[in-house]
Write a structure and sequence with these properties.
140 residues; alpha+beta; Alpha-Beta Plaits; 4-stranded antiparallel sheet; 3-stranded antiparallel sheet; binds zinc ion
Length: 140
């Protein structure tokens, strides 16, 4: 038996096993992580501006979504946002992820390259990648 040939065969098998099984078609969108501290009875989000820039959404729209979900009051203070009450980082991260899934990520192709459109009483997200246009719930 040709020993070298056998080894080559084994090497080929090993190389194939090392190919990652999952190859993403889209760059996975990373939800920005909230950086906050509690001050008295308020929660101060320090990287608010960074979060809204990364999401590419109107900060007022995200603020409205969060204050509705948290059932509290919130204000923007320069690059920060301040919410009444004490909220954990994980809790706020989950809400921002929910916001991104609803108002940012294209439901058709999962691309984050979308824009939020307002047409009369309706809101849509329009995908720049695949052209899909999906109605989204309007924030009241
Ligand atoms: Zn799309």
């Amino acid at each position: 038996m040709d020993v070298n040939f056998f080894n080559y065969d084994e090497m080929l098998k090993k190389a194939k096993e090392q190919v990652p099984p999952d190859i993403y078609h889209h760059k996975r969108f990373e939800i920005p992580v909230v950086d906050l501290f509690i001050e008295g009875n308020r929660t101060v989000v320090q990287n608010w501006k960074d979060i809204t820039t990364r999401l590419n959404r109107d900060p007022a729209h995200l603020l409205k979504f969060l204050t509705r979900e948290l059932a509290t009051a919130g204000t923007m203070d320069g690059p920060r946002a301040i919410f009444q009450g004490k909220f954990s980082k994980n809790f706020l991260n989950d809400l921002i992820e929910r916001y991104a899934k609803r108002y940012l990520i294209c439901p058709t192709c999962t691309s984050p390259d979308t824009i939020l459109l307002k047409e009369g009483p309706y809101h849509f997200i329009k995908c720049e990648a695949c052209g899909a246009k999906e109605a989204v719930p309007k924030l009241k």
